[in-house]
Amino acid sequence: MAVFAGQGDPRRSLSLLWRADTPPPARGGPGPKPRLSVDAIVTAAVELADEEGMGALSMRAVGDRLGRTAMALYTYVPGKSELLDLMYDAVHAELPTSYPESDGWRAALTAWAEEVLEFFVRHPWVLQVSQARPVLGPHEYAGLDTLVTLLRATGLEAGALRRLVGTLFPFVRGSAQTVADARLAAEATGSTDKEWWAARSAALMELVPDFAERFPAVHRLETEGPVEPHPDADAGPVPYLEREARATFRAGLGVLLDGIEAARARRPRP
Question: Which of 113, 200, 210, 253 is 20 to 30 A distant from 19 in Cα terms?
Fold first, then answer.
């Protein structure tokens, strides 16, 4: 289920994101409780979402982590909507903002895509935050600025770059969603990928004996060979579906980069 950012008061949310108008830290009272701050609240909320998922997020749960009541948090963060914006932007600070240019734009974009994929897999709850309405925070903008800088090196004109930004981000997010789901599937269902496919495939072939005739293109795709071995086929604990998702990501990224190469070749000659 998608969660839409930017649902709180615009000025208050943006002030918090850009730290333009944050309240001073609370004075220390008796006892060992640490002082509250926007950063401390956001850090606790991110840890909660990483460990238990978006469904566990609430002001009360974050307050419990900090040894405070939910009401104590409202002095710093007006509500859950604003907190989500802050969390989303804060974790984007993990992403690199520069890449070596010595190996060319293709190597830099490959490294960028791989970094962003792993970022989403580390924080799968971020994938639930829709990109339809951006958070408009400094770290989110830094990530966008980084990608645009890398794409500038292709020499393509601005209109093409805008479309590439709108292609690359959803591609990496979608790939990361597949990897994250594959990683969680065994834990959530109690069966391994091998067990699931073995049971379902046997039942499908029994119940639909004319499968190959009804879906000939799918059948040919599954039976034609040889199937290319995956570079990480012998990886130990990595689930099969996750390995497949990562291999598909690499293949798809290669096709996209080939497309950028083709677009560069079509540029008008000066």
Answer: 113
